[in-house]
Design brief:
By secondary structure, this protein is an alpha/beta fold. Helix content is 40%, strand content 14%. Strands 1-2-3-4-5-6 form a six-stranded parallel beta sheet, with helices on one face. The longest helix is centred in the C-terminal third of the chain and has 21 residues. The two termini are 19 Å apart.
Length: 181
Amino acid sequence: MKIAIDGYCCHRHFGEIYPNSETEPALKLNFWQCLEQAIDFDIEGISIESFMFSHPQAQDVERLKTILKQHQIELVSAWKYPCDFESGKNLNALDVFKKHVSSAQKLGAKVMRICAGGRPQDSWQTHKSILLALIEQATDFAIQYNIIMANEIVDLVKCINHEHFGICLDTAHNLRMLEDP
């Protein structure tokens, strides 16, 4: 097991504030400052959210790869904000997802954490039936880039049943959503 940090811990420093529940931080950070702080914790891995490192230039990609290699840090790419699969209802999500898979591969990531959507408004079975086809297409695409997708919904992992689609156990998220981890 590797000790890693999820870059989403820094979301407020990027101005990503949940209305009515979070306040603006006293200190705003850019991507490189967040990475520097994470490195100071002597981590072995980092998950970088797509909004944190969006539209990187070639020199940014090379700079990040060099820093990660220098500090022997494994990268996990995370795709969920500002666009996710929205429970299968976002018809543009697959196109956006494909761009992020390509970026993740260029950065050297082997795993991409995904967000399938928020809490379903209808039953889980209805929610799953809408979402499953989209996740299957996304998995087929990720396989071409040798990217393993990770999410937190065991039932989806069982349905997809592929070595390129696995679990991301995020106990903090489960607790925040008042679920039993």
